[in-house]
């Protein structure tokens, strides 16, 4: 049979059928990574075997998730403030006192993490690349709903490992939605990947009960609701909350007055993400907290 | 029927001529390197011809949309996985162009025909 001189009309797109079938799957970055063996398989494949669950007589197997940290986020007049302490622990040991738990994913999105750092940082990395990969392949920015769902899916895929006792991550996701109505959006998750949109504030990690109490109190009976605070007032409340959490929770670093180590505070607004310089945090701390 | 060598060369020339004819009416893409950056420019608005591949890599192409799409996807996948496994600075345009995408793309194309 005579072949046509050019391949322009082999099929509609000129793509071989296999490539066409893969083109859809390739728009999902984690899926691409899994195909190339660069990312742990999703939950279904990682489901623990029966043997893992066999309880040795006399030994009660209890699953206890640990998220030793304190992360908080709330909306204020200038957008969303996200703050995290700097302490990383392994059991009773303080491993690191300058950990970054508030991570920038793209120009308008922050993921703050509580849980196992290895998994959390990997998740942030996958997420960051996923958003870029989507924009480059699909020629448009991923919607906020799409981004929120992407993180949810990563958590869900990781749940097999969580059930085996390693790699629990409970993040907060803050972003600025410019479409359809320009507004700051704040989400928190559970370890299985359920997403909850927060109207005012969210906190996660072992020190979060104290923080949640403070934020509820401030929002309800404080001098003004959180959403009406200016930047300095917001930073002040964030620092007070973390200091309170650190007071009773050994896994939360709070403010190291001696070492001059301050929490990491980032703000998401219409303009993008601002990382507050340490000098500014120190000034607010000195004036209103210390 | 056995094709003789000169017929084969002629057939290639025909294809080349045909493709050049097909591409001729397409509006051109120009790239201009200057001190701080590279300027990518095209005048046609009907169809996007300049694409983002990675942090500092872009691609401009005219031709069959399906061919461009395959090349574009291959380049993005390669650059993204490389950048993810190592770092963004390890994604090199030279390797992408000379050894990975275009070489691989052409080979795959030959197999499919």
Summarize, please.
The complex is a heterodimer of chains A (290) and B (113). Chain A is α+β, with helices and mostly antiparallel strands and 290 residues long.
Could you explain the architecture of this structure?
The complex is a heterodimer of chains A (290) and B (113). Chain A is of the alpha+beta class and 290 residues long. Chain A has a single domain, classed as Glutamine Phosphoribosylpyrophosphate, subunit 1, domain 1, CATH 3.60.20.10. Helices cover 38% and strands 20% of the residues of chain A. Chain A has helices spanning 17-26, 29-35, 43-46, 50-53, 117-138, 144-163, 208-221, 231-248, 278-289, and strands spanning 71-76, 79-84, 88-90, 93-96, 102-106, 109-112, 172-177, 183-189, 195-197, 201-204, 264-269, 272-275. In chain A, the strands form 3 sheets. Chain A has a 5-stranded antiparallel sheet, with helices on one face. In chain A, strands 5-6-7-8-9 form a 5-stranded antiparallel sheet. Chain A has a two-stranded antiparallel sheet with strand order 3-4. In chain A, strand 5 (102-106) and strand 6 (109-112) form a beta hairpin. In chain A, helix 8 crosses helix 9. The longest helix of chain A has 22 residues, at 117-138. The radius of gyration of chain A is 22 Å and the shape is globular. Chain B is α+β, with helices and mostly antiparallel strands. Chain B has one domain (5-112): Glutamine Phosphoribosylpyrophosphate, subunit 1, domain 1 (4-Layer Sandwich), CATH 3.60.20.10. Chain B has 3 helices and 4 strands; from the N terminus they run αββββαα. Chain B has helices at 5-23, 65-85, 93-112, and strands at 29-33, 38-42, 50-54, 57-60. A two-stranded antiparallel sheet of chain B has the order 1-2. A two-stranded antiparallel sheet of chain B has the order 3-4. In chain B, a hairpin with a 4-residue loop joins strand 1 and strand 2. In chain B, helix 2 crosses helix 3 (93-112). Chain B starts with a helix and ends with a helix. In chain B, 17% of the residues are buried. The interface between A and B is medium-sized, with 28 and 29 residues.
């Amino acid at each position: 049979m005579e072949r046509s001189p050019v391949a322009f009309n082999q099929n509609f797109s000129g793509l071989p059928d296999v490539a066409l079938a893969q083109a859809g799957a390739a728009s999902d970055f984690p899926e691409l990574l899994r195909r190339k063996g660069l990312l742990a398989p999703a939950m279904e494949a990682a489901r623990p075997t029966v043997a893992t669950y066999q309880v040795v007589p006399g030994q009660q197997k209890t699953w206890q998730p640990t998220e030793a940290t304190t992360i908080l986020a709330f909306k204020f007049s200038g957008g969303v403030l996200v703050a995290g302490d700097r302490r990383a622990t392994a059991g009773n040991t303080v491993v690191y006192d300058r950990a970054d738990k508030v991570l920038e994913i793209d120009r308008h999105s922050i993921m703050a993490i509580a849980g196992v750092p290895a998994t959390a940082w990997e998740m942030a990395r996958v997420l960051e690349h996923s958003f870029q990969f989507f924009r480059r392949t699909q020629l448009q920015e991923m919607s906020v709903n799409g981004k929120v769902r992407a993180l949810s899916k990563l958590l869900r895929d990781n749940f097999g490992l969580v059930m085996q006792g390693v790699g629990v991550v409970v993040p907060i996701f803050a972003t600025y939605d410019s479409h359809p109505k320009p507004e700051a959006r704040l989400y928190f998750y559970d370890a299985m990947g359920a997403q909850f949109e927060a109207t005012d504030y969210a906190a996660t990690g072992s020190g979060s009960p104290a923080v949640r109490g403070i934020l509820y109190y401030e929002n309800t009976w404080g001098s003004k609701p959180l959403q009406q605070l200016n930047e300095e007032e917001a930073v002040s409340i964030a620092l007070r909350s973390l200091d309170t959490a650190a007071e009773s929770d050994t896994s939360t670093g709070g403010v190291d007055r001696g070492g001059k180590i301050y929490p990491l505070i980032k703000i998401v607004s219409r303009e993008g993400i601002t990382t507050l310089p340490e000098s500014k945090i120190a000034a607010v701390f000195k004036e209103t907290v210390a | 029927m056995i094709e003789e060598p000169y017929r084969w060369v002629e057939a290639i020339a025909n294809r080349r001529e045909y493709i050049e004819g097909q591409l001729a009416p397409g509006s051109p893409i120009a790239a201009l390197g200057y001190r701080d950056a590279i300027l990518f420019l095209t005048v046609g608005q009907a169809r996007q011809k300049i694409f983002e591949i990675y942090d500092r890599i872009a691609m401009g192409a005219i031709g069959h949309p399906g061919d461009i799409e395959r090349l574009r996807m291959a380049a993005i996948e390669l650059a993204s996985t490389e950048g993810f496994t190592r770092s963004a600075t390890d994604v090199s345009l030279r390797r992408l162009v000379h050894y990975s995408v275009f070489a691989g793309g052409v080979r795959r194309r030959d197999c499919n025909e």
